[in-house]
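ok so I'm stuck.
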Amino acid sequence: IDRQVHADSSLRAIELGAGLGSVGIFLAQHKGLDVVVTDQPEAMSLLERNVGMNSEGKRLKAHPLVWGDPAQLKALGSFDLVVGSDVTYRPDCLDELLGSIRQLLRPGGRAFL
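replied:
not stuck anymore, here's the structure
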């Protein structure tokens, strides 16, 4: 990720299954990226609180996302980087995860899981 970000600091990134949002917060604060951190709707209160405490300007936003939901994916737009940490622990959700990544990535974008 570090090499990709150094090449272009104007990249747009999204973190899937963000939990506390640590990866997305790091990318926004230390790499200067515009970042959207996402998680299931029931996990949003803590994520939104962390974003509120760590947001600088409009570079960091939190949004609920159910993987595979076409309307939610379309509303988020496309991204240069899709990141996720510990998101492959449920084999029954892998199809939705991979489909979401495909829809969210811009042409030439990269995913890091």
